[in-house]
Amino acid sequence: MFEGLADLGHAYAGFLNPATLAYGLGGAFVGIVMGILPGLSATLAIALLTTLTIKLEANDAILVLICSYVGALYGGSRTAILLNIPGTAANAASCADGYALAKQGQAGRAIGIATSGAFVSTLFGVLCLATFTPVLAEVALSFGAFEFFWLALFGVTMSGSIVGNDPLKGWLMGMLGLFIAQVGQEGLYAYDRFTFGWDELSGGIALIPALVGAFGLAEVLTTLSDPIERRIVELRDSVLPRFREIVQYWRTVLRSGVIGVFTGLLPGVGEDAGSWMSYAAAKAVSKEKAQFGKGSIDGLMAAETGDMASIPGHIIPCLALGIPGSAPSAVLMAAMIIHGIQPGPMLMIQHPHFVYQVVAMTTLASIAILLFGLFGVRPLLHILRVRRAVLMPIVFVLCVVGAFATASRLFDVYAMLAIGIVAFLLRRRGYEMAPLVLGLVLGPLLDKSLRRGLVLSDGSLVPFFTRPICIAFASVTLFTILLYVPAFRALVQRARGAVADGIRSLFARGS
Amino acid sequence: MSTPEPTDAPTGPRSDLADSVGWIVLGIAVLIGSITMDRLEAQHINPYTVPGLLPGLLGVTMVVLGGVLAMRSWRRIAQHGPAAPADADQREDQREQWRRIAIVAALCSTYCVVLIGHGLPFWLASAIYVAGSIVILQRIGRDDPAQALAPRSVIKALVIGLTSAVITHLVFQDLFLVRLP
Q: How many Cβ pairs closer than 8 A exist between chain A and B?
């Protein structure tokens, strides 16, 4: 334990130099700008910055990416408040109350609450990150091929079920992602799958170009397809962070922090789930339920703390298991691999200090957004006044650079273009991108784990269902899928009702 | 298998039905590709590790999920009847959206396929693309389309295009040493 604290101390001390601080502030700045721009997501911010920072030292590059991740989600709240459009998907829950406050002339107050909530909840998440990652990594050391098979399948299934409102479409996107990940040379025998003799495809569809297409070009098309350009609400009052309200709503902050971190731990669920679940929980216990959606401080605080606390939450499984918690953390994981750091159970053995460095980086990110919240709100809002006809072509130029830069292949630019157009069409038809991303990231792991597992068991499927951790993952995965079958769902609801009645009658008798 | 109507389903059952056909066709294609894939018998590999194993399972899953989507869409169409036809305004809005999408996709494709990677310096290709896009997007915008072709607007677009392209070039290539197309 003391060794861990010493590592943490070294990590914090290591960041106290002007160059590192400048990288952190720069990353947070780019993240906030990307977050403010409607539609441009944290995923795109990290993907583009991965290419920009490819020649930097690993620690500096990851610092920039983590700061941009935190910055993008924080920046997204401003668009939600001033434009009633979530800057990133995670800020959707902030729209109703934030925009209502803005319409009442309290836009500055709403932004101040978002700043203080974001700062405190990120710090809470950082605390959980420092505490749980080494523990989870220790547990994960006992994982073998069978466990990783279920973990990968669990991630794609959960992502498909929770993201969006149609699990069936989510799972189909997960399958598509898993399939795309199979294209190219496979890991065991270097055999070319689905390449049709095309050499360029042997390397597979790279993650960064695919994500830049799915989140960048698709957003450019979405934004520009709307014939009407929205105008922002004017900012009149003070935007300074409101820590008094943090004290006043400490229960909401703490509850949302816990919910945010917990949802973050679930693979592929995304920051928006943390935000919506916190919002729903706050509404359920609030004394001012009627105010929710009409400018509730409690509601805005819950939404903003829930999504920000889920960021460190998402990084925990990413580091400890090598399973990303969300689309942005998937890109973050890919960036770590590019810089020679392989996340997963072996991380604590191969790079024992890295987890603590990530803790220090996330702390620095929360301080950076507080600084921008104190001094940079009004200047940064000018970005929202730039017309989309000017902004979006520039964003697309960055997408092209982002797709090209990791491998210097024009093929990646073409792949980005094709994936972007297909992703845009799929999104219009109600298909979410997060399960696709999870499928893309987890595809190679699923493939290797299945085949290695079958070799170890000599073709028997029994170990996939009998090892203790496998039983847990398999049960949850199959239960999630079976919930889609109406007869099973009705059975579960009846059982839940019976248990609730039983508990109620037990308490009634006791009193 | 039937499911309740989603609260805010973004698309109708008819388009879902069309999608399901696409998913089933893709699933079958993946399955055929996996079955016909080399099993590397000449290398005497363990038969449980054939390269087509997981893709084949994914193909089957796509077919099954596509089938469920088809059944669900079919039932919803039967339950709720065909969707009400869009009114003239909605149709006009749809047409306008698709026109804008086609123009933006064409601009992006031209930039990626024609302008870059064929000898033209990146900054010049990007400047042409950005300036051209600004002029065209303002021209198809609703605010003041005629104004978009005024000399002042065109010069402004050229300046923005050139500035953004040169800054991108300098930041990526010279400052962060990233290779550009």
A: 195
Q: Which amino acid is at A432?
A: E
Q: How far is A226 from chain B (nearest CA, A)?
A: 6
Closest of A313, A147, A461 to residue B48, by C-alpha: A461
Calculate how close chain A gets to B100, using CA atoms only, in Å.
5
Tokens read off for A356: 């603590």
In a domain, B161, yes or no: yes
Domain boundary among B24, B54, B80: B80
B74 and B109, same domain (yes or no) = no
Q: Please tell me if residue A438 touches chain B, with a CB cutoff of 8 Å.
A: no
Q: Is there a contact between B100 and A429 if contact means CB atoms under 8 Å apart?
A: no
Residue B180 lies in a domain: no
- Phi and psi angles of residue A347, each rounded to the nearest 5 degrees, phi first: -60, -45
**Is residue B181 in a domain?**
no
**pLDDT per residue over A158-210, tens digit each?**
888 877 788 999 999 999 999 999 999 998 899 999 999 888 899 899 888 99
Q: Are residues B126 and B171 in the same domain?
A: yes
Q: Is A228 in the B-facing interface, judged by CB distances under 8 Å?
A: yes
Which residue out of B48, B63, B171 would a mutagenesis test of the A interface target, given it has the greatest number of A Cβ atoms within 10 Å?
Answer: B48
Question: CA A472 to CA A458: how far, in whole Å?
Answer: 23
Length reported for chain B: 181
Domain range summary for chain A, segments of one domain joined by + = 2-156+229-403, 467-511
Q: Does the model's pTM come out above 0.90? A: no
Both B128 and B105 in a single domain? yes
Q: In chain A, which residue's Cα lies nearest the Cα of B100?
A: A225
Handedness of CA A61, A66, A69, A71 (dihedral sign): negative
Each residue's pLDDT, cut to its tens digit, for chain B (181 residues) gives: 333 333 344 478 889 999 999 999 999 999 999 999 999 888 888 888 999 999 999 999 999 999 999 999 999 988 877 666 677 888 888 888 899 999 999 999 999 999 998 889 999 999 999 999 999 998 887 666 667 678 888 999 999 999 999 999 999 888 888 888 8
| Spatial distance between the Cα atoms of A339 and A333, rounded to a whole number of angstroms | 10
Let me know whether B76 and B134 are in one domain.
no
Q: Which of A157, A404, A448 to mutate to test the interface with B (most CBs of B within 10 A)?
A: A404
Helix axes A354-375, A107-140, angle to 10 degrees: 180
Decide if B49 and A451 are in contact by the 8 Å CB cutoff: yes
Which of residues B80, B96, B111 is at a domain's end? B80
Q: Alpha-carbon distance A101 to B170, whole Å?
A: 42
Contact A455 B49 (CB under 8 A): yes
Q: Which of A441, A389, A385, A400 is nearest to A216 (CA)?
A: A400
Residue B20 and residue B58 in one domain: yes
Domain that holds residue B92: 88-175
The domain total for chain B is 2
Q: Is residue B1 part of a domain?
A: no
